[in-house]
Design goal:
Layout: E1 2-6, H1 11-22, E2 27-29, E3 41-45, E4 60-63, H2 69-72, E5 82-84, H3 88-106, H4 109-117, E6 133-137, H5 141-150, E7 156-161, E8 170-174, H6 179-184, E9 188-191, H7 205-209, E10 221-224, H8 233-242, E11 247-250, E12 270-272, H9 282-297
Parallel strand pairs: 1-2, 1-3, 3-4, 4-5, 6-7, 6-9, 7-8, 9-10, 10-11, 11-12
Bound molecules: NADPH dihydro-nicotinamide-adenine-dinucleotide phosphate and oxalic acid (OXD).
The site of NADPH dihydro-nicotinamide-adenine-dinucleotide phosphate has 29 residues, from helix 5 and strand 7.
């Protein structure tokens, strides 16, 4: 039996489609009449505190989110393996966001928009893409897709990850010891890390001060599409105001929705989107998770299992 516990999405629609995809396999929702001891799979997004009450026979927890940081903090999380969402549609959407914001900042959008508003004709040539370095933190599923999309645009690319990823055309930096070198040559810093104790708060003033300053007019830029817990918003506000950063694109926030009184709303060179960089598609999600259940029921091992010790 599969139990859905999805918040903030259309759970009824997911249930209908999963029932169709899984044929005779029983799919239930909270409020249905079922014995929790018979639940073998749970499909979750933002599960409530009591989500796992009475569930004793789980084979796997299926996470609608690619990021599992919040799930791992659930106080009653069962020990069953967690399968996270890995999907080419999700990767494509995230890369769309990354490419849009990287190219916008590379072409000095903030500066020329301000000039237009002031009816100012002021020529300034942005560096060529090949002279501009995009540094991507996190070279997993999303980071690798992002570099695949950025490479043909001609950017100089560098990556930072825990273990070395050898990708043609991308200079790889590994671990804490190489972090400063990675930052020193980066003009546009893109964050696609998972939120873990090691990566929490990584987008802070100390990090911003280490970025390359002499390439992009206005200063280096950050693009955060991973988690709000990666950023120190008071530092971002200060860095945007004192010129340590030329601009920031933020899709995620320490508190979501971003509070009305956050100073970030009013900062001209801060580009805010409401955690929409990449949504998990119902169509591909249903295909992905139903296949996982079918395969696992037929004896195949689970795929894309979260390493709880690593935190992602
Ligand atoms: P992956 O698990 O595939 O990749 C994580 C990458 O981060 C890996 O390259 C890993 O290194 C690296 N990493 C982890 N810890 C460290 C560390 N301490 N130091 C250096 N590198 C580290 O994740 P995804 O690419 O699938 O997703 C990344 C995040 O994107 C998710 O966790 C989620 O928070 C966020 N997200 C945001 C969305 C949005 O709409 N805004 C939508 C979907 C996801 P290594 O390769 O060596 O293991
Ligand atoms: C995710 C997200 O982790 O949407 O999938 O943030």
């Amino acid at each position: 039996m599969l139990l859905l516990h999805l918040s903030d999405v259309d759970e009824a629609s997911w249930a209908t489609k999963l029932r169709q995809a899984l044929g005779g396999y029983r799919v239930v929702r909270r409020g249905d009449d079922f014995d929790p001891r018979e639940v073998r799979y749970m499909f979750v997004w933002k599960p409530k505190a009591d989500a796992f009450d009475g569930i004793t026979g789980l084979k796997a927890i299926l996470s609608l989110g690619a990021g599992v940081d919040a799930l791992l903090k659930h106080p009653a999380l069962p020990a069953a393996p967690i399968v996270r969402f890995v999907d080419s549609d999700l990767s494509q959407r995230m890369s769309d966001y990354v490419v849009a914001h990287v190219t916008m900042h590379h072409r000095l959008y903030t500066r020329f928009r301000a000039d237009q508003m002031a009816r100012r004709w002021s020529q300034l040539y942005p560096p060529a893409a090949s002279e501009s370095t995009v540094g991507i933190m996190g070279m997993g599923v999303l980071g690798q897709d992002a570099v695949r999309r950025l490479l043909p645009l001609g950017f100089d690319l560098r990556s930072w990850s825990r273990t070395l990823k050898q990708i043609e055309g991308v200079t790889g930096f590994v671990g804490a010891a190489a972090f400063d070198d990675f930052l020193a040559g980066t003009d546009i810093l893109v964050n696609l890390l998972p939120l873990t104790p090691e990566t929490a708060g990584i987008l802070n003033m100390e990090t911003f001060r280490k970025l390359r300053r002499d390439r992009l007019a206005g200063g280096p830029v950050i693009v955060n599409a991973a988690r709000g817990g990666h950023q120190r918003e008071t530092d971002i506000v200060a860095a945007l105001q004192d010129g340590t950063l030329g601009a920031a694109s933020l899709d995620v926030f320490e508190t979501e929705p971003l509070p009305q009184d956050s100073p970030l709303w009013d900062i001209e060179n801060c580009y805010i989107t409401p955690h929409i960089a990449a949504i998990s598609s119902e169509t591909s999600g249903v295909a992905y998770f139903s296949q996982i259940i079918r395969d696992h029921e037929a004896g195949a091992p689970l795929i894309n299992v979260v390493d709880r010790a690593r935190g992602y």
